[in-house]
Specification:
Layout (H helix, E strand, L loop, with lengths): L7 E7 L2 E7 L8 H16 L5 E6 L11 H6 L3 H20 L4 E5 L3 E2 L1 H8 L2 E5 L4 E2 L2 H4 L7 H8 L1 H9 L7 H7 L4 E3 L2 H16 L3 H11 L6 H15 L3 H13 L1
Parallel strand pairs: 2-3, 3-4, 4-6, 5-7, 6-8
Antiparallel strand pairs: 1-2
């Protein structure tokens, strides 16, 4: 039996729709083990011949994703461990990018840091009107380096810079929708799920070769991401060792 206190990743496929769900008791945060399993599960869905489209979601009705695990960030003591942790996010984003199937994300609540990267790396993102966003990395003393290519690709350099520099401010779901991070916004969970299920079913009935070709076109010029995201992970892995970041996280945990 999985230890739910450490988080879980589940996958199922019904009627041509492969559904990946991640969960962690601390706001659906993503420690390293879960990140590695999530990337592996995206790759599993990519190879599943029964799945024609993939839905990526998190469990519960709170935060969609609280980003990196603060406990794990505090435990990092050298550059290799730091880089390895941030490569977890890189592997997830690259798995989503290279998956030959279209990925639909379901964002039901607040999302931070790496969670925004996941929403941006999806091919179509549905969100609830409560799904505000924050790129808090600069406030921690690091920066949104690994998620930057995915977020910048989706919403543009200006909007990405706004989030990256104004790292202590929550931006509304409506703002995220206007900037293109969210493709559709719903005021109720029922409306969100109805719209998502409708599109997922339509795509599952579509020509898989056409969808694969469309995905390749929309992701063209991103072949450098393997090297780029590894370089960004090393930058983040080095910065997370700073006293500034360690002190910030310790103070934040005391207030939490």
């Amino acid at each position: 039996m999985p230890d739910i206190e450490k988080g879980t990743i589940t996958y199922k496929c019904d009627d041509g729709i492969g559904t990946i769900e991640f969960y962690h008791p601390k706001g659906n945060s993503l420690p390293g083990d879960l990140l590695r399993e999530l990337a592996e599960t995206v790759n599993k869905a990519a190879k599943d011949e029964d799945a024609r489209v993939v839905v990526l979601r998190s469990r519960g009705d709170g935060a969609f994703c609280a980003g990196a695990s603060f406990d794990e960030l505090l435990a990092i003591t050298d550059l290799n461990d730091g880089k390895k942790f941030f490569m977890g996010f890189a592997h997830v984003l690259n798995a989503m990018r290279t998956c030959p199937k279209l990925i639909i994300a379901r964002v039901h609540g607040k999302t931070v840091g790496g969670g925004i990267g996941i929403a941006a790396a999806a091919d179509f993102t549905f969100a609830h009107s409560s799904a505000s966003i924050k790129l808090s990395e600069l406030a921690l003393g690091i920066g949104p380096f690994v998620v930057g290519p995915a977020v910048g690709r989706k919403i543009g350099v200006s909007a990405f810079s706004t989030l990256a520099l104004d790292a202590r401010t929550w931006y509304s779901a409506d703002w995220a929708h206007q900037k293109g991070l969210y493709n559709k916004l719903s005021d109720s969970i029922d409306e969100l799920d109805e719209a998502l299920n409708k599109l997922a079913s339509e795509l599952a009935a579509s020509n898989p070769d056409s969808m694969k070709a469309l995905k390749e076109i929309t992701w063209q010029s991103t072949g450098h991401w393997h090297a780029t995201l590894e370089q960004r992970a090393e930058i983040s892995g080095n910065l997370v060792l700073s006293d500034f970041t360690k002190d910030f996280i310790e103070d934040f945990k005391k207030k939490d």
